[in-house]
Amino acid sequence: MADFDNDVRRLIALVKSAITGEKLISSDDFEGRFEKIMRLASLHEVAHLAASALLNGGLIKNEEHIRFAEKQVFDESYRNTKNSYTLRISKDILNENNIPFIALKGAVIKDYYPERWMRSSCDIDILVKKADFNRALSVFRKKGFELNSDLNFHDVSLLYDDTNLELHFSICENIRNIDSVLKKVWEYVSVADGCEYQEQKDYFVFHHIAHMSYHFLAGGCGIRPFLDLWILRRAGFCDFNAVKSFCENAKIGAFFDAVMQLTSVWFDNAKESDITNRMERYIIIGGAYGYFPNNAATDTIRSGGKIQHILSFAFPPYSNMRVLYPILNRASFLLPFCYVYRLFQKTVGKGSVKAKEKYKIIKKQDSEFIKEVSTLMKMLKLDTKKGGN
Which of 139, 169, 199 finishes a domain? Predict the structure, then answer.
């Protein structure tokens, strides 16, 4: 465990070094722990930053390690180039068709990194108004964008030149407390250029933290959003007191405080606390996109126990079912048929493998681990109720 904890410290130091350009002490065993550090970095979508710091600091000498690190940097730089091109094409399409839109998340944050490729993004997120969504979807498809997913509760995925565009008609997360503020996004925008709008800076950072809380409840949010906050804070991007007010209105004020504390612990050498240590353990094992046992634990806590969790997994409440099966929004009487279809998919259909894996995890859950996660959620005062967007 000590080796793992030290690797976490090494990774954070490398990420910070990549951003600031400050060289690290070469006596630390970056070479000997290279594979484990890079595996952890990949889990958190920051392998390119760790690789950049290792190369620029001359911290690795092994030729195989150097080639691997160079590939991480090249691959992310290439992905950024493709994403940037698709983003520009997407903006042109929306402007040409007079459709108001907002570029979200990484597309904005990239501008505050020393170089845009340093902020990894697996996709592009664009928000249009719900009334314009069908028209926007139609014009994108006419321009060669292909459907890459079914419509879900706030977006659809489109593919263009191997780049993924998530076209949103909402930024709500299907969680009542944060959705009460997220649904007001168009009240907190200003004109950027043409039909493009941008979220006001304080609201943008609130949205970032609210999205973190959503992923946190789903199993983890990774290191990257903390790095984003550190960079935005260093740049004087917004008034963080105003951000906290938004968070308090969305009932995630305690989460905001803890997030900012952990950001300072990781990147400003602030003193650790019980809550930052608990958050760190949960986040590190969760990676950038969450960890199944973390997610299973939060769902068990929300359900009230393992048996209730299994039942709620088989028969989710209507508020969740209407997200999974949008037809219920128009024909609620079809709910029993949707339950039958869901059970079929989870037992013998395409979702059966994942469902069986989750069932095994629920059954084998360690009660101490559930208790630890429950304690953390209570400390953060996170509301796990779904629905209400």
Answer: 169
